[in-house]
Design brief:
The complex is a heterodimer of chains A (114) and B (109).
Chain A (H helix, E strand, L loop, with lengths): L3 E4 L2 E4 L5 E7 L5 E7 L5 E7 L6 E2 L7 E3 L5 E6 L8 E8 L9 E2 L3 E5 L1
Chain B lengths: L3 E4 L2 E5 L4 E7 L7 E5 L5 E6 L3 E5 L2 E6 L4 E6 L8 E8 L6 E3 L3 E6 L1
Parallel strand pairs in B: 2-11
Antiparallel strand pairs in B: 1-3, 3-8, 4-5, 4-9, 6-7, 7-8, 9-10, 9-11
Classes of the chains: A mainly beta (114), B mainly beta (109).
């Protein structure tokens, strides 16, 4: 049982390049989330999904797209990377909500946009 | 949206000391979670505690929902307790979370 895994662990991009971050969970969780963490700040929600085939915007969705084609995977895409997107990206999942809404986090992906 | 304030921002402890971290929130909530981010960046969920008190080993948490605050207690601190502690409350429903800025705890041997 690996929990929540993220690929890649670290990436350097040039401004304007695109990339996809992959999140996978093996806990059969319905809900999945993408957050970003900037220095000295807490996490901010980018996008989330409450089930396979569904996605919704969080606090800071601009510049990102997501897809949840399979229940266990949640992809975060950057179509045209900008230096402001330099951050650490965390994926999380939860069974559902309420008392089953405890969120479990992946190890993070460090992204540097030059 | 809901505001989450954590205090103190930084805390330095001698190994074996006890401490209390506080989380204030601006609106009523039905979901509050505490997380620990270790020095290597891994985030671990400590408590799901919308109200009442829970204990897990040397850590315990109390949420007083009517007064809009939660407390995290660390007893007999160890160096492995170092890291950043975050509390998080729902943005608009009970699963989208808004995180506080965190309390950075350093435990010295």
């Amino acid at each position: 049982n690996a929990g929540v895994t993220q690929t890649p662990k670290f990436r350097v991009l040039k401004t304007g390049q695109s990339m996809t971050l992959l999140c996978a969970q093996d806990m059969n969780h319905e809900y999945m989330y993408w957050y970003r963490q900037d220095p000295g700040m807490g996490l901010r929600l980018i996008h989330y999904s409450v089930g396979e085939g569904t996605t919704a915007k969080g606090e800071v969705p601009d510049g990102y797209n997501v897809s949840r084609l399979k229940k266990q995977n949640f992809l975060l895409g950057l179509e045209s990377a900008a230096p402001s997107q330099t951050s650490v990206y965390f994926c999380a999942s939860s069974l559902t909500s309420g008392v089953r809404g405890t969120q479990y986090f992946g190890p993070g992906t460090r992204l540097l946009v030059l | 949206g809901i505001q989450v304030e954590q205090s103190p921002p930084d805390l330095i402890l001698q190994e074996g000391a006890n401490s209390t971290l506080r989380c204030n929130f601006s609106d009523s909530v039905n979901n509050l979670q505490w997380f620990h981010q270790n020095p290597w960046g891994q985030l671990i969920n400590l408590f799901y505690i919308p109200s009442g008190t829970k204990q897990n080993g040397r850590l315990s948490a109390t949420t007083v929902a009517t007064e809009r605050y939660s407390l995290l207690y660390i007893s007999s601190s160890q160096t492995t307790d170092s890291g950043v502690y975050f509390c998080a409350v729902p943005l608009s429903n009970d699963y989208k979370l808004s995180f506080g800025a965190g309390t950075t705890v350093t435990v010295r041997a």
